[in-house]
Amino acid sequence: QVQLVESGGGSVQAGGSLRLSCAASGDTYRPYCMGWFRQALGKEREGVAAIASDVGTTYADSAKGRFTIYKANAKNTLYLQMNSLKPEDTAMYYCAVLRSRWVGSRRLCLPDTNALDTWGQGTLVTVSP
Length: 129
Prior knowledge:
By secondary structure, this protein is an all-beta fold. The mean pLDDT is about 95.
């Protein structure tokens, strides 16, 4: 089974940027579908973004235009570049291996909490006004 270790969280002011990293190890296979999730204090975990090599990327509405998910396959590392951060982005961020699903002939990779398979311990992002 793959192990996931997130890093890169921290405290920034609104409008600032952070890049989160997720190092994957412990398994010989390369997950097809991976993503980032977050959970704010007192709220449910929500999907932020997902990526699969052949279908591209998918973003939650809250992340569109500000966040970018990408992978460095040679490093087995997943990233989340976050720009124009807002106080409402404050949360623990988790990277995850996701289960893809088929709809007809289309294989989907979505940041859906129902698709969570494996996730890391998280990295905290705090955005101050």
